[in-house]
Design a protein that fits this description.
Layout: H1 9-42, E1 50-55, H2 59-72, E2 76-81, H3 84-92, E3 98-101, E4 108-111, H4 117-134, E5 139-142, H5 155-177, H6 183-208, H7 216-241, H8 245-255, H9 257-260, H10 272-277, H11 282-295, H12 302-328, H13 337-349
Parallel strand pairs: 1-2, 1-3, 4-5
Antiparallel strand pairs: 3-4
Helix pairs in contact: 1-8, 5-6, 5-7, 5-8, 5-13, 6-7, 7-8, 7-11, 7-12, 11-12
Amino acid sequence: MSTPRNPAAAPALGHSLKHLAIHLITPLLMCLGMALAYQGAFHQPEPHHLEVAVVGTTPQAQGLAQAIQGKAGDALDVRTVDDRAGAERLLRDRELVGAFVPDARSPELIVAKGNSETSVVAATAVFTNVTDQQGVPLHVTDLTTPAEGDPTGQGLFFLLVALSIGSYASVAVIGAAGAGLSLKVRALVGVAVSLVVSVIGIVTAGPVFHVVDHDHAAIWALGWLYSAGILLIGIGLHSFLKKWTTLALMVLFVMLNFTSSGGIYRPELQNGFFGGLHGFWTGAGFLEGARNILYFDGGAGLGGHVVTLLLWLLLGGAVLVAAALYEGRGRRPAETPEEAEEEMEEAVAV
């Protein structure tokens, strides 16, 4: 006896699979984006115009610098510096990664690891090859003092990650759960949330884990500027993108942001695309500004990084103005409760 067929079974199955496929688009796009961004940025770190120097005015020092440059090609930019004091000044201004002081018995490499641990490793490898040929060990002197809880200098990058996730994940919640609020109120909530995010960041990075061991107020202020920029941009974009906002923010503030921030590799160890983004992207503004405060006494171009964060904050204001005009014309699409719930779940998940 044959089993009776249910005519509605096939259409119901097809509809369910279509519904599932649509919802899988976002995580699969996230997977693709993360794979392209992270592997594109980090898969093959090689020096590109790494700034180093040989200290000395003698013909031997000049000849050594020329020999290293000739062998390295575009990987290094080698100059000579008259004396040790001049080399240290350039290192503190973050214009050099390493300065080599030749000596027949005790050659020295002066570095500033607060600039970038990985760049210092690359510079050390270059001059270790030089001293190996001389048959003497290379002595490395670090001009910066790492924080108690951050001996590798990577802790600031993880602070950047925490601030970013707290900020962009909050955007979906504000947009979905606060859908009935005016844009002005949502923006004010965003500013308040950015304050909370920045306080959480500085408390955990400071007293809890000692990644930041001085100038807490200055690092907190940078964190607030950074977080507020993300939240205002996100809240404005939500008016246009709705459930796609989280994906857009992941592209802007994770895929392109973490990879260009200089937290793992600075531009001199990256390809041109991500190295170029480092010059104006918001994560680099926060991270390099924080490094300047903690390790270089607030110098080495701190003002430029603050300007970068302010410009991203102004961009957030511009997006909000565009969103206000858009909503004022009654164009903001309404979200169903199911869409709002899915959006919040997605934000929490990522």
